[in-house]
Amino acid sequence: MDFVLHVFAEEHALKRNNTVQSRGQLTHKKDLGVYMKIFELAKTVNEKEFDPLLLTDSIPLDKIDALDEQHHTPLFHAISEGDLKKTKYLLKNNATLQTDKYTPFLLACFFGQLEIAQFLYQEGCLNERDIYQNTPLMNAAWNGHTEVVEWLLSLGAEINATNVHGDSALYIALRYKHPLTASLLLEQKNIDAYNENVLSYDPIVIALFHGYLDIAKGLYNDKVNLNKQYTENNTLLHICALNGDLTGTEWLLNRGANPHISNSQALTPLMMAAQYGHPTIVSKYLADKNYQKQAKRPYELELALVMAAAKGQGAVLDILISHIKDIPETSIHAALLGAVMNDRCDVIPKLLTINPSKAASYVKKHYHFGDYPYNQGHTLLHAAADKGYLALAQNLAHLGAKLDAKNDNKDTVLHYAVRSGNLDLVRWLCNQNLDVNLKNKQGNTPLHFAVEIKNPAIIRCLLLHGADHLIENKLQDTPEFLARTDKELHSCFEEFEKRDLKHFGLCEIHQAVTSKEDKALLQILPVVHDLKQRSDDGLTAIQVAAHMNNLNPLVILLLWEAKGDRKYAQDLAKFYMEKYDSHMTAYKSFAQSERAIRQFPEHRLNILLKLYQACETKQNQQGIPATEPVVEQCASVSASASGRKLRFFDSSESLASSESKEEELSENPVKTVA
């Protein structure tokens, strides 16, 4: 512990204001250079005689008490650095420390400068005190200066004196981790090792806290109460559990310490060991045959399991799960909630192994928890989404959690993900083809929440995934209306309405399909032949067209992907359509496209095929591998593809004539089928 923390920090706290100058402070700028020279000489001169080098007749000796920036005088530096010659010279010329908080002798003991302390020693100073009632012996023990402590004891220093906090030299040595100094003090016949300080701490608790078991054993006798409760009612066993001290735990248990006492947080030592991840201590308690027989609290092990889960203590969980028989479902539920609320992904599979037959029901269950305005009926996914835990949400989904689950307020998982502000989580959920327009009981959609938290990136993501910005909540407010008070937020809606989507993370092929007209798409398709490209929000061009209900571009993309095969294109539309709920815009778009593909004019299809063949020929000439379908082929799609025969035209026809084909195609748009 720095001496500044010991005395000077408290001195600064007591200082009234900085405008008062102490005696001897510099008062004239012209003297500064001279006095700094004095400081340097006082710090550096060791072997040479000080008198002939330091002063001339023009420098008054009463200026040698000048304070530096830390409010220390040259005498302070001389003592703290152990420079006896400087100290002697400065004291000979009546130098002082410029404070009444401590004396030179106290200072020498604190810094462990034995030679200077011996020089300064005089009658009456052995047990002198600073303003906090610290003695020279306490100062020496503070920094573990065992040699100084031994010398002071030999002179008869009061070993059992205490400061204003009730701390003795022994307590101070243990508190600041100086076991050698503490052992020396304990060897003294007249020491009282059982004094409590003002916080009711005694030396034995400090010894065990720092793991000094040998010292604790030396302090122990029949009069010591091993079940004494300290701060927050923690016992010595609690302290060992907190620090993972197995040997200390064993020693206390062997001497009859009670392991069933609860602290102010209703935790027993075993529960604390589980919470802080000390499996060896947990095992020690469980191996004791009498432990459970003497237990006064029911469900102690189940509570320990819940705490270990909340802290992600996997090793402790393994021990508890293997030991506890018939763990109640309520304990499993609580453990799962604790793990989810604290993003402890790794322990969730462990908890689900407790009762494998009910694991799926645990994951899907609606719980009543959380500090929310509407906190009834949340699932584990709601909790993960509320915290913005993407990996955990994915893990829960893999374990069978329902992504479309609603709580009692009809909030979806997506509502909570949006409110967490985690864009990656929102993107992942949207790409699971969830309905982004579902309302809660207040009529708010996820887009309302995105405006509420002022997150432009999430607003853009939701809009591209089909969010309707004109849906009113029960206050008749639309997301677009709520965004009008914020220029940046409202610009998201303005750009989307105008299809000015340069800030929406779209590739060229995506931007081409945002218009209901297909001319831009037909110009870009021969250049960008790969439909697997995704936007920043994870959408393919086909999905963007579907979410925006742009039928013409959608039909052309499906036919392009199917290489002109109507049946395969219709199967693709069905494949996509089945991924969405029937009331969603994308579902309706794919349903319409299925019928529109059937009615697509034959001559336009022939032109599209020529464009495709020209692109493929050019790719083959350039050695570019053919692109794979943008979706995994379902059974019906594969069956269609296996039997179809593609119609190819004369390969000598080049892309140079593609402009006329594009124009002809764009002049005959697809008619929307009701």
UniProtKB/TrEMBL annotation:
SUPFAM superfamilies per record: Ankyrin repeat
GO cellular component term of the entry, any: cytoplasm
SMART domains, per the entry: ANK
A Pfam family of this chain: Ank_2
Key words, A-Z: ANK repeat, Repeat
UniProt-annotated stretches for the region Disordered: 652-674
Keyword Repeat: yes
Renumbered ranges of ANK repeats: 132-164, 232-264, 376-408, 409-441, 442-474
Protein's UniProt name: Ankyrin repeat protein
Source organism per UniProt: Legionella shakespearei DSM 23087
Lineage start: Bacteria, Pseudomonadati, Pseudomonadota, Gammaproteobacteria, Legionellales
